[in-house]
């Protein structure tokens, strides 16, 4: 285990599997459970790094596939790696590009060696093998990097899902062998869809590789929330208790609560910013659609329970006006608030875990959101 990373488990809730901990990285400590805003192309859309910090973000995520296409890993390396390039001095995680096997399936050709993509930008060819994925991520310089994995649709036949699990395990071993930097934590990714038997097989293949952290991939890709929670019930206990557990690409505020109470430590999702750009805000009373006419003359804050800069400075009337007038400030402000909401939710949940009231916290919030 690299000396650059330490995971300390501070407390586990008495009635659930919720954990509060601290993960030390070369660029700072992440208090867990934690949510990472998504900065696919070395930027969280519409927000400066100062705004991210003010919103409470501890760690951000960027994407290997997209950055390999533009501006290119060599360019990022020459500019000081992602930290220097985007001027974010906190921890960064890079996804390997494996999710693009799922999301860009029509542009990809997959075999045991790796995956070849036709760029969604100009049609140029990008070949991504496990070794190449590691090489790119080492040049990008993130604190946490991911093994290349295969993420098939959740409803494929079991034989096809087994093939993806087997390939993901083989690729993980190749990624482990290819890694040369000890200042990057390489995570293995457990696949298997909603099939608990395959999830167990995937974990069993990855655990001997002794990764410093483990991720659960292949969820929130079309299955129902109930199926996702049941899959987490059977998968999270398979992962080492002394290392960070990361649920990739998830999700709604309820998803975060449910996953934390099942023992998950890290999250990322585009939902706060994507919804913010589309005039939907997450609040302590549930989602709010800011284009609705009822906000036209509302002088009140977006969320009275939120102390973010958006809620302390601007009225609902003004925020609605920005969207109706198609001013770029509207998406910026709602994205800023939504990230702050996610950060506050997990910050408050960390306190609840320490006080052994995680289940009470869940029930109170779901009732407030009408869920």
Automatic annotation (TrEMBL):
Region described as RNA binding: spans on this chain: 249-255, 273-277
Quaternary assembly: Homodimer. Within each dimer, one monomer is responsible for RNA recognition and catalysis, while the other monomer binds to the replacement base PreQ1.
Keyword rRNA-binding: no
Broadest EC class assigned to this enzyme: transferase
Free-text comment on the cofactor: Binds 1 zinc ion per subunit.
Pfam families for this protein: TGT (PF01702)
HAMAP family noted in UniProt: Q_tRNA_Tgt
Name of the protein: Queuine tRNA-ribosyltransferase
Cofactor(s) needed for function: Zn(2+)
Biological process terms in GO annotation: tRNA queuosine(34) biosynthetic process
EC number(s) per entry: 2.4.2.29
Compositional bias ranges of the Basic and acidic residues kind: 7-16
One GO CC term, this protein: cytosol
Source organism: Symmachiella dynata
